Records
---
Amino acid sequence: MIAEERRRTADLVESLSPHQLATRSLCGAWTVKEVAGHLVAAVAASGGAALLLVVRSGFDIHRANARLAARMARRPAGELAALLREHAEDPFKPPIVGYPGQLTDLQVHGQDIRRPLGLPHDLRPDRLRISLDFLVGGRAVGFVPRRRPAGLRFEAADLDWAWGDGPVIRGTGEALLLGLTGRRAALDDLSGEGVAELRRRI
């Protein structure tokens, strides 16, 4: 699943115009191309270069990650796509978040790219369920603060998936995925008495 998502992301990145690549994504201040750079850096950056950036960033992982993404994004889009394909089947399994974390990273960042460009989400239901289970399962370190979903019930309108007890938040699986990971752009696509609380927590 991860390998195929990397290849699909490569196809997407390669298809975008310079204007689309320069569009601001849903992921903080990153452009679409910087999001692609982040996804490439996760599999193609050398360990030594990454460690050096961590040191130079005062051991701030998030800051180092942003700098690495920006550095990788200086490459042509075609090269980023080629690197994603070349490393599509990289077997590295991150600690704590494991393979579900990698799959979720690809799916969430895919929407960070697609939504601002008005492109259909193109998510696979079986993979989306894995990511939704991961995000509420307590191992999503760096994805979802533990308190964000606590005491709320999430119900997917287009998938056989629901989780939690409390005020209901209902929407498509894609909107739930983005809401759980703190993307405010998806909140208007959600309904239910729990949405106001989710908005406050984000």
---
Amino acid sequence: MNAAEIARHSRAGVAVEVVPETGSTNADLMERAAALDAPLLLVAEHQTAGRGRAGRSWLSAPGDSLTFSLAWKFDAPLQQLAGMPLAVGVALADALAACGVQVQLKWPNDVLKDGSKLAGVLIETQSGAGGIWAVIGIGMNLRMPDEMEARIGRTVAAAPWLAQMDRDQLMATLLDSLAAALAEFSRSGFGAFSARWNRLHAWQGRTVAVLDRGATLYEGLAAGVDDSGRLLLDCAEGRMTVLAGDVSLRTREA
């Protein structure tokens, strides 16, 4: 990919850097956040130490995925940034729909295609003078060779149609959608996204378990999210809300 071409195709006005290889684009931007004075998109052709939530690894092969991070500054306190991963999911879904790929969203940070994971979001923050830098890391599968799926150890999704697109234009489309969503999130919070997220909710009405380190904390029917991004769960005792934190979600059949 070419940074100048991505910037040329984009309307976001965000600086773009492309590197052939790095350990983690999130780690790189977290190290640089204190010195940044404007948003920055960092794209890696290949990541050797990509990370997901709760310290999980994100495995990818050169040319078969998109791995990138966007650093964005917020003036709001950290507690007002709750729901940002879900807003990012909506932005990704909008961009992919514009490219002809329909997806759904799984709480709190996964993009699903045909029921399997296509993309994941990892957001890390760093407080500094004048605000908080959020580093939004995204890994998205384009092709999924059998040997890579075997290494991952579960069924995952791919989007071969996207793999045939011009990569610079695809990256610019994703950047524009993310930049617009983050600006809207900064103005209005997750409440501006909750209805859209709920329309894309993959597990609406299904029985799910909320897990913490493999132990089931709660079980009930998934009923979408509220305006803060909390999962709504209809349990035997009534409706409850679940904060994301480090918990994960599974359907009963899983």
---
Amino acid sequence: MNKTATLLGLAGLIPFVGLTAMMYQPWAIGLFMTYSAVILSFLGGIHWGVALRDTDWRNNWRLCLCMLPSLLAWLALALPVEVALTLLLLSYAAWWLYDFMQLAIADYRRLRRCLTLVVLACHGSWLYFYV
């Protein structure tokens, strides 16, 4: 995998981990959920880009499915905190499984596994804090 892509992916964890470390600050949850929603939307965009590039991979169902992370992220921002955190956590887990089934790039799978496990741990920490 491209070194820059790996470093940027790891750097993308900084807001997740940093805001989780500051969870006792009342303003941190809003920033955490907003950032989480943005990144979840980005994950759908990865598949959109692949579908547009690879004509063998492109179909209407797959293009529509690429929109699901953005819609779930947007919905999460309108829900109560506990429900939103649960929806985001489940969305990340489900999209990770979808990624694994659809994109057979070993380096990408390894990076996504690492990133997703940290993101899930952060969401789980927030859920534990709020419940």
